[in-house]
Every structure is written in C-alpha cells, then in structure tokens.
Amino acid sequence: MDRAIASLFLFLVLALPVNAEVGIELGQQEFLENCAVCHGESASGNGPVSRFLRIEPSDLTKLARDNGGEFPFERVYQVIDGRTEVALHGPRKMPVWGYKYLKDWEKNTDPTQQEVPAEDFVTGRILSLIRYIQTLQSE
Ligand code: HEC
After folding, report:
1. Mean local confidence (pLDDT), 76-93
2. Percent residues over pLDDT 90 in the chain
3. Which DSSP string do the residues of the chain spell out, in sequence order?
4. What is the pLDDT of residue 4?
5. 94 C-beta closer than 6 A to ligand 1
6. Is 57 left (phi over 0), alpha (psi -120 to 50) or beta?
7. CA–CA separation, 111 and 70 (whole Å)
8. Which of 4, 25, 60, 120 could form an SS bridge with 43, CB 3.0 to 4.6 Å?
9. What gap in Å lies between CA 119 and CA 105, rounded to an integer?
10. What value does the CA radius of gyration of the chain take, rounded to a whole number of Å?
11. Residue 26, domain extent
12. Which of 24, 35, 53 to mutate to test the pocket of ligand 1 (most atoms within 8 A of CB)?
C-alpha cells in the first residue's frame, strides 16, 4: 500500500511538472489554510479553534516520536482521508478531508486538474500534506 501510494505520488509529481519542493509548499499552504485553525500554525495542536473542542487536536510534530521514531505514514494517511473510518464508525472530530478534496475536484476550479482522475487528485492533495507534516517532526 505505502509503495503503491508512493509510486503514484512520484507519477503525479512527474506528470504535473512539479518538483518535491513544490509538493511540500503545496502541503504547507494547504495546512495553513485548512488545518492550522485546530492544530496550530506550528502543528503542535494549539490552534485558535482548539479550545472549543472537547477532544484536543493532536500535536502533529510528535507523530514520529510517539511511534517509536518512525513516522506512522499509513495511519496519518487514513486519518486525513477519513472516508473509510467514517463508513465504519460514524462521525468523528477530525473533518473528513477525502470528501472535501473530492468536492474540490468536482468544482474543477483549476483547469488542469480534471486531467487527473478524481482519486489520484485526492491522493496527491493528502500526500503533499503528509510530506509537509513529515518536515515538522521533532523529538
Ligand atoms: C475542526 C478541527 C480540526 C481541523 C480543521 C483539522 N483537525 Fe486534525 N484532528 C482534530 C482532532 C480533534 C484530532 C484528534 C483525533 C480525533 O478526534 O479524531 C485530530 C487528529 C489528527 C491527526 C491524527 C494524529 C494521530 O495521532 O494519529 C492527524 C494526522 C490530523 N488531525 C491531521 C490534520 C490535517 C492534515 C488537517 C488539515 C487538512 C487537519 N487535521 C484539520 C481536529 C482538527
């Protein structure tokens, strides 16, 4: 699974002439727009909305540390996408980004995006976020 996702990402990166740096920048922009309200600009879990939530947003800079030093790629991917989890357990506190990115694709605001199949577009958005989150890991 990881390898399939990784090679798909590589494919997207090559197909949409963007380099790795751009992938991370996209992820950063996306993070600041959609995630920082809850997880905080530094991703440590203290965004402005966090005090209104009953469940604290996770500190996203400690994901590797709390997993024995290894970044829990698969889990992070599933939590961000969220569609499988929702189907299994019903509502949760974390928004379901898989649906949002699918809607973004349907809205077709970027003229080049419909050349990419919907699921690949969703995967690309989630992977650029994960790449950014990986750069924030600390002890
Ligand atoms: C409305 C507030 C909110 C927003 C916005 C939000 N999150 Fe979360 N997030 C949470 C909460 C609360 C949790 C704790 C677990 C839960 O309740 O599902 C969480 C958990 C997570 C986890 C799980 C960490 C672990 O320990 O496994 C990841 C990864 C994550 N969020 C990433 C993101 C990303 C990436 C975005 C933006 C695309 C985002 N979150 C936007 C509230 C939010």
Report:
1. 84
2. 60
3. -HHHHHHHHHHHHHHTT--HHHHHHHHHHHHHHHTHHHH-TTSSS--TTGGG-SSPPP-TTSTTGGGTTS--HHHHHHHHH-HHHHHHH---SS--HHHHHHHHHHHT-STTGGGS-HHHHHHHHHHHHHHHHHHT---
4. 61
5. yes
6. beta
7. 38
8. 60
9. 9
10. 15
11. 2-135
12. 35
Q: Is 129 in the pocket of ligand 1 (CB under 6 A)?
A: yes
pTM of the model: 0.84
pLDDT of 62 = 97
Cβ density class 58-89: b for 16+ within 10 Å, e for less: bbbbbbbeeeeeeeebeebbebbbbeeeeeee
- Pocket flag, ligand 1, residue 37 (CB < 6 Å): yes
Ligand 1 neighbour 92 (Cβ under 6 A): yes
* 14 or 106, higher pLDDT: 106
Using an 8 Å Cβ cutoff, are 50 and 38 in contact?
yes
